[in-house]
Write a structure and sequence with these properties.
Structural class: alpha/beta
Mean pLDDT: 93
Shape: globular
Number of helices: 10
Strand order of the largest sheet: 3-2-1-4-7
CATH superfamily of the largest domain: ATPase, nucleotide binding domain
Radius of gyration: 20 Å
Number of domains: 2
Number of strands: 12
Low-confidence stretches: none
CATH topology of the largest domain: Nucleotidyltransferase, domain 5
CATH architecture of the largest domain: 2-Layer Sandwich
Order of helices and strands: EEEHEEEHEHEEEHHHHEHHEH
Largest sheet: 5 strands, mixed
Length: about 325
């Protein structure tokens, strides 16, 4: 009997990352190629097909071993129909990707958004391995998320389940408008963009901070300054962590996960950030919703999207 393997495709604006996973969520082989966004829709679609065949050809497996192909894309889509409605920074609007790939590759295909597949990757083969229910936060340019219960992604009626960055958790008097158009979203303070905005505001106000001495400023600079004792930077990072922890307390009484996983660039702050998130979580969460629950760092890094995309195909 042939060993089943699954191909995962993680599509970014610059590069596509692909991998082969076995039924245990172990990443066995990886490949990366340019997306070639500037060449238009047809080139991108052609590259997905070419790279999917190439990652298998370069591996110890044959195409006959492939049980299915999963694809993660930044954007909005109809998961059941496999239709990309719009994709961030990609010319993929109203594209029937599932039907196209199934026709070209001759394999079952599933698609989902990049935050969901990253969450599934961590749940299946990363920091959530062996845990039945996890909620993942991805702290990057925005705040992404994903909810996995019983090994399955929770997508919701219109695919909006797990959009944790758009929880309106910031009080009205502190709230600013999010890029989504709404007020008080979590990502306005807890993303890299939010942290950087708060730091620039502090410098602009004339607050006494080492951040004012930097010609260019990044979220990493703010976190590093906070670790080195800069009080203004500490206040900013604490605020970001506080609202993440508070949002987790809300999620905990809706989903009651066994584990929260925190990934993305901001999560590289490590225990310095996680300890503050835990403090806020335990402050606000109901006791029964915290029993045995842990909050940990993601384990797969940039490979979470590949593993999660492959994981979309596990039950086929």
């Amino acid at each position: 009997m042939l060993e089943k393997v699954y191909v995962g495709v993680d599509i970014g604006g610059t590069a596509m990352k692909l991998g082969i996973c076995n039924a245990n969520g172990e990443l066995l082989h990886v490949f990366e190629g340019p997306t070639e966004t500037d060449q238009g829709t047809d080139r991108i679609l052609g590259n997905i097909v070419k790279y999917a065949r190439q990652v298998v050809a370069e591996s110890p497996f044959e195409w006959e071993h492939v049980a299915g192909v999963g694809v993660g894309i930044p954007g909005f889509m109809d998961f059941e129909k496999g239709l990309i409605k719009s994709a961030s920074n990609l010319p993929l609007n109203n594209v029937p990707l599932k039907d196209f790939l199934q026709s070209e590759l001759g394999k079952p295909v599933r698609i989902n958004n990049d935050a969901n597949v990253a969450a599934l990757g961590e749940a299946w083969g990363g920091a959530g391995r062996g845990v039945s229910s996890v909620v993942c936060y991805t702290l990057g340019t925005g705040v992404g998320g994903g909810i996995v219960v019983g090994g399955r992604l929770i997508e919701g009626f219109t695919g909006m389940a797990g959009e944790l960055g758009h929880m309106a958790i910031i009080p009205d008097l502190e709230a600013i408008q999010c890029g989504c158009g709404k007020m008080g979203c979590l990502e306005t303070v807890s993303s890299a963009t939010g942290i950087l905005r708060m730091a620039r505001d502090a410098v602009g106000r004339g607050d006494r901070t080492s951040l004012a001495e930097l010609e260019t400023l990044t979220a990493k600079d703010v976190i590093d300054a906070a670790k080195n004792g800069d009080e203004v930077a500490q206040r900013i990072v604490n605020r970001a962590a506080y609202y993440i922890g508070k949002s987790m307390a809300v999620v905990a009484i809706v989903v009651n996960p066994a584990r929260f996983i925190v990934g993305g660039g901001v999560s590289k702050a490590g225990e310095f950030l996680l300890s503050q998130i835990r403090e806020a979580f335990y402050k606000f969460a109901q006791d029964r919703a915290t029993e045995g629950v842990d909050i940990v760092a993601a384990a797969l890094g940039n490979n979470a999207g590949i593993v999660g995309a492959a994981g979309l195909m596990r039950d086929l």
